[in-house]
Specification:
- The protein is an alpha+beta fold and 300 residues long.
- It folds into two domains: 2-150, FAS1 domain, CATH 2.30.180; 159-294, FAS1 domain.
- It has helices spanning 18-23, 29-38, 57-66, 77-85, 159-165, 170-176, 184-187, 203-213, 223-231, and strands at residues 2-4, 10-12, 50-55, 88-89, 101-104, 118-122, 128-129, 133-142, 145-150, 196-201, 234-236, 249-252, 258-262, 268-270, 276-286, 289-294.
- The strands form three sheets. The protein has a seven-stranded mixed β-sheet with strand order 4-3-9-8-7-6-5. A seven-stranded mixed β-sheet has the order 11-10-16-15-14-13-12.
- The longest helix has 11 residues, at 203-213.
- The radius of gyration is 21 Å and the shape is elongated.
- It starts with a strand and ends in a 6-residue tail after the last strand.
- This is Fasciclin domain-containing protein.
- It holds the Pfam family Fasciclin.
- It comes from Chryseobacterium endophyticum.
- Residues 15-154, 156-298 form the FAS1 domain.
Length: 300
Amino acid sequence: MTSCDDNGTDNMMTDRTTYELVASDSNLTSLKAAIDKAGLSTTLSHSGTFTLFAPTNAAFSTFLQANGYASLNDVPAATLKTLLMNHVLGSEMKASAIATGYVSTMAMGSASTTRNISMFINTSGGVKINGTANVVQTDIDANNGVIHKVDAVIALPTVTTHVMANPQFSTMVSALTRNDMPNFTAILSGSANAPFTVFAPTNNAFASLLTQLNLSALASIPQATLEGALKYHVVAGSNKASTDLTNNMTLTTLQGSTFTITTSGGVKITDKNNRVSNVILTDVQCSNGIIHGIDKVLLP
């Protein structure tokens, strides 16, 4: 049996595994070498329903150069294994099923030994993964799943990665990167004080805050107010999934103040000003923490 990929070429696919298809593709030789070094050839040859987002040779060349590696031989096998599993889903997702939102990869990072790292897929204007990798070829069928080629190696996403990738958090990104703020991008990408639990306000939450404060724009929020508010949304040293949030739990934030979690009628946060925010998105697992989306900006 044959199938057509999105470029219209016929390929014998149904009798070959994901690994065999990678091994037979001249544009995936670097990926094949990486899989072999990481000891994942057996995994991707097993029966199953995998989705592999496969970086091209050019993508690997860019990755190696950007990270200071002369060749794949210089990448530690354990590092490579985790990185590659960040390109694999445990279920088959054909192009027709790809939609904007979060899915779980088969990778685990340092923040949690029990929760798989999340992947954000954005389908507005093509298919982009974690804000960095574009899908350039779809639906290469294997007998144990499907392959989609991507034009970049998908790095393990940090809190910063996932906040920046999701358009719902674009105002928060503008706040975090305002030129009078601390280097939040580096802080939330790093390991110092990690793992982080971040309660991320949506764009609508920031719009409501501006209305409440009678301000016309984000730039009008005083420096101390904005810095304090942003730090108040971060809990350092803990990867608190939704299952870890209990009724009347008090959490101490990076800003130094606390807020209270309640779970009756959904998870809510009451800040120091008795303003209540609803948790509307949960468990975006990052390599160095976890994100939950909220519908109101918290104020210490």
